[in-house]
Amino acid sequence: MLTTEDLQYDMNQKIGNYTTGGKIVNGTTIITSKDGTYYAETKDAYFKKDVVLKDPAYDLQSDSLLYNTETNFATFITDTYIRDSSGRTIRTKEGFYDLLNHKARFGKRAKITDSSQSIIADTINF
Hints:
Shape: elongated
Structural class: mainly beta
């Protein structure tokens, strides 16, 4: 469910916009941003400006992120920084994370770094 202090909703298009901060809570996962758009027909949320996704297993920061509330897919569409609970970091510019099945794909020369090694590749399945 999307919560925000101020939502402008187009009843005909079934599209809501916020510019004063909003969040979606899905179980233990919380996604917040300053601006965003929610498409009720497709259940897609487009988070913009200072996006933060917090989950018990990792924290994510980005400028933009797509998230489908029905499929629980987060899609990376710009520079994204992820830090997991073990301290490993991931930098990517595109890809997705399936929150239900805990599977991810990172693209565009993604980089995964932990305390002993770094991996850089065009595509990484994780």
